[in-house]
Specification:
The structure holds two protein chains of two kinds. Chain A has no helices and eleven strands. By secondary structure, chain B is mostly beta strands. The chains are: A mainly beta, B mainly beta.
Chain lengths: ~110, ~120
């Protein structure tokens, strides 16, 4: 099983801030990583796959980078609708696994 | 626009079998190179991938649940299903069905359904 360490678990930020979320793997996964956004009471939504490919319809302020074991999700200019919980997911080897989540809250 | 909808009992007794169905609309479950998966989330916790199925019937399961899980597909009804046997309170969660791209990222999700295991 590939374990993932996502940090921070809680991030306090203001509208307009640039925020960065990290996801570190217990072993290399090439670029087989996705990022999701989840709002309370809703299903997760795919933001980025293949580590850096923006899903259709996702605003360009979201970007992903990294390969191997270290990955980053960046929101360049935080908007009010971006306050949510973010998860990384590896799909390099079974079982697919998710990070513990990062809650982005209003500062 | 593909849509997925979970259905099934919201309350299951301990030791019994949890059964859920996901109905896919807006496209054929057999078209394209997609997998159809189940993911769950206990209240206030993270996401756990349960398993997936291809329309050929080929499956992949999470080893932590493999002995209790069966995922099946009915292409004539555009549905796929989850059965989880011998449930305990630890199986209480919101269960999501999702469409996985061939590579593994899930691009469409159902709204989720809460299943509580309690007597």
């Amino acid at each position: 099983v590939i374990w993932m360490t996502q940090s921070p678990s809680l991030l306090s930020a203001s509208t307009g801030d640039r925020v960065t979320i990290s996801c570190r793997m217990s072993q290399g996964i090439s670029s087989y990583l996705a990022w999701y956004q989840q709002k309370p009471g809703k299903a997760p939504e795919l933001l980025i796959y293949a580590a850096s490919t923006l899903q259709s319809g996702v605003p360009s302020r979201f970007s992903g980078s990294g390969s191997g074991t270290d990955f980053t999700l960046t929101i360049s200019c935080l908007q009010s609708e971006d306050f949510a919980t973010y998860y990384c997911q590896q799909y390099y080897s079974f079982p697919w696994t998710f990070g513990q989540g990062t809650k982005v809250e209003i500062k | 626009q593909v849509q997925l909808q979970e259905s099934g009992p919201g309350l299951v007794k301990p030791s019994q079998t949890l059964s859920l169905t996901c109905t896919v609309s807006g496209g054929s479950i057999s078209s394209g190179s997609y997998y159809w998966s189940w993911i769950r989330q206990p209240a206030g916790k993270g996401l756990e991938w349960i398993g997936r199925i291809y329309t050929s019937g080929s499956t992949n399961y999470n080893p932590s649940l493999k002995s209790r899980v069966t995922i099946s597909v009915d292409t004539s009804k555009n549905q796929f299903s989850l059965k989880l046997s011998s449930v305990t309170a630890a199986d209480t969660a919101v269960y999501y069905c999702a469409r996985e791209l061939e590579t593994g990222a899930a691009d469409y999700w159902g709204q989720g359904t809460l299943v509580t295991v309690s007597s």
